[in-house]
Amino acid sequence: MKNLLYATLVAMLPFFAWAQNSVTGKVTDNSQNALPGATIKIKNQRTAVLSDANGNFTLGNLARGRYTIVVSYVGYKSQEKSIDLSQNISLNFSLEQQSFLADEVVVSATRASKNAATTYRNLDKEELAKNNLGQDLPYLLNQTPSVVVSSDAGTGIGYTGLRIRGSDATRINVTLNGIPLNDAESQGSFFINLPDLASSVDNIQIQRGVGTSTNGAGAFGGSLNIQTTTRRDSAYAELNNTYGSYDTWKNTVSVGSGLINNKFTFDGRLSRIKSDGYVDRAFSNLKSFFISGAYYGKKDILRANVFSGSEKTYQAWNGVGEETLKTDRTHNDFTYDNQTDNYQQDHYQLFYTRNITSQLVANAALHYTYGRGYYEEYKENQSLAKYKIPAVVLGEVTQDASDLVRRLWLDNDFYGVTYSLNYTPKNNLNFVLGGAYNEYKGRHFDEVVWAQFANYDGSESIRHRYDDNDAFKSDFNIFGRANYQIGQFNLFGDLQYRRVYYSYFGIDPNGTPAQQNATLNFFNPKAGLTYNLSEKSNVYASVAVGNKEPNRRDFTDSNINSRPKSENLTDVEAGYRTQFSNVSLGVNGFAMFYKDQLINTGKLNDVGGQTRQNVPDSYRAGIEVDGKWQILKNLSWAATATLSRNKIKDFAEYIYDENPAAFTSVMVNNYKNTTIAFSPSIIASSEINYNVLPNASIALLSKYVGKQYLDNTSADSRTLSSFFVNDIRLSYNTPLAGIKNVGLSLLVNNVFSTLYESNGGTYPYLYDGTLDRFNYYYPQATRNFLLSLNVKF
């Protein structure tokens, strides 16, 4: 209760303050024409204001001191002016039109605009860099609304998880420069395959709920729209090295040519991350590179990206059993030396943007991703027949079971094209037509590489392939969106059609393994309305429909008659946003109504595999607060809070008897109005930042996550306890001896060594009619640190 009270107070402190001075002015172009909607902000602060219809702006309530004012406007070069503020002053800006297109047009078709009736948060490169000391990308998003992160190894390095509003990674749409990142079959996004991606990211937009139309799998919890390296006019080089607890290392080298002959840029990055992990043997060895080259013409941009990541990770997938957790929080069930996951993923992207007329901009992209790898595991006392290995006769004893080592392989290709057309016939009217066509080819095959007793059909090969099947998936979508400004009102409509074809090796209606296929068609309409109360505040409301196909296991573990239905979501959002010189605040209410949501119920298929089942009605509803207060020139406070209800109206849980003689025996429990698993009713975060000196700061980062249920039964015996965790970040930056910047950062995670688990699971079973349940958890690291040295040339 103390933690809850503290978190609530932190999240609900008042968002207003008084200061003495203001900066007023006007933003125009070189011909002195007003530029309405220009962004005026104080450098290194998140708050900003927009110029009004006449180009006028006011930055009020500013304490005395030195400020750098930055003004930006789409299609114009940004401008900075430094001032010493001791009284009210007037400061005008005249912006020069760019002779080139901005990289932002590449992702604009799938993003929400400033006044859109959509719930979103933008993160820029500077904000990401503050905490980018080696942890995976989900951990850099931990201070954003409704987000909960977890780590198998306990340190935020290796396999990590991300939930938004309780929805897991399979329901969060992720795009890189508008190109889908989610795996076509499992539908998850595995950032472990792209280690240190954040070091090549320019900005991210996080949309919560269905959001705007995008490419790839349906967005049921939210979307991450990631844009990688954009144009930098000056040459640079950067060295970033981190050392931390559990022998953690991060080494990054980044270089860029700047603008060559006013036309070309080249950027590159090479990274290595390694860590032993908090959990026993849960090491990670990660490597990656990123290369980008671009041509900027007066009316077009051509950019090519090539990047790759490889990982070798010791498995910590089983978590720690409830009883073991009491005595050994770092326990790992696996002891085999090479119980590892091994994977490499290569990405190739080619973008072309053309300013056809002053009113029409076209984008097109080609992409190809090649992934391959396996995980290796030791299995005890396995039936040889299961692996298609003949029994072995040793003297007079027939061995039909054996300890063995197996590798489960995945080799896949993903390729396609994305496109968009942006037509702006008038300043108050905008049309976007976009879409994509992608194909996926997945080859799944499994091998035994060692067995205590084995014949391998007389073959001398160490590898015995016992399973081999292929999958093919095509994904086509097209969407159109229009925005229309009428006075103080902004209206938008968004229509998307998506067609999915999936061919896979599954089960036919007779229960025989065979190649199967499915074709699914989805229509996803969206509409919204924004009313501008002033140039600084607006209210909005929207309704959006999303549809999502089942994943690979849902298909392969069922036949055409038992196959689960696609999921459907109607998402209603409404909110208020305001932005002043020292305060920004957003309050959003959401109601997400699911039809046929897929959940785990314990039900098994014909061969004893777990299958998800549709539940007719379920919902998530709540309110989110996201704000920042610049209390003083050197003191700021940002906070978020989410309060929600997440309910399943009714479902049946199936529990089977594990005694082989009684396997067909099943217990069925019926539940009503239960809480959706892993959906806390309270999530809150806080970041208090104090600039001790102009170039030195200290920050306290806090996170509170309420109680979560491990399954959908709302049983208190199967929960993740609420937790309240605090981190401290120290940073110091200074130019030194001709070096642009030398930066030191120290991040102390979980500074009070709170014992907590952020993820887990549960498994019910019967044996001879007796019910038992096994709970397991993923413990997170106690106090640990990351120390970073950053040098920029």
From TrEMBL:
Top-level taxon of origin: Bacteria
GO CC annotation: cell outer membrane
Pfam families tied to this protein: CarbopepD_reg_2, Plug, TonB_dep_Rec_b-barrel
Main location: membrane
MF terms in GO: siderophore uptake transmembrane transporter activity
PROSITE patterns assigned: TONB_DEPENDENT_REC_3
Gene3D superfamilies linked to this entry: Carboxypeptidase-like, regulatory domain, TonB-dependent receptor, beta-barrel domain, TonB-dependent receptor, plug domain
Domain TonB-dependent receptor plug: 116-222
Organism this protein belongs to: Pedobacter chinensis
Family statement drawn from the similarity comment of this UniProt entry: Belongs to the TonB-dependent receptor family.
Residue ranges occupied by any TonB-dependent receptor-like beta-barrel domain in the UniProt entry: 307-751
Leader sequence segment: 1-19
Membrane topology qualifier: Multi-pass membrane protein
Protein name from the UniProt record: TonB-dependent receptor
Keywords assigned by UniProt, alphabetized: Cell outer membrane, Ion transport, Iron, Iron transport, Membrane, Receptor, Signal, TonB box, Transmembrane, Transmembrane beta strand, Transport
Location of the protein in the cell: Cell outer membrane
InterPro entries from the UniProt entry: Beta-barrel_TonB, Beta-barrel_TonB_sf, CarboxyPept-like_regulatory, Plug_dom, Plug_dom_sf, TonB-dep_rcpt-like
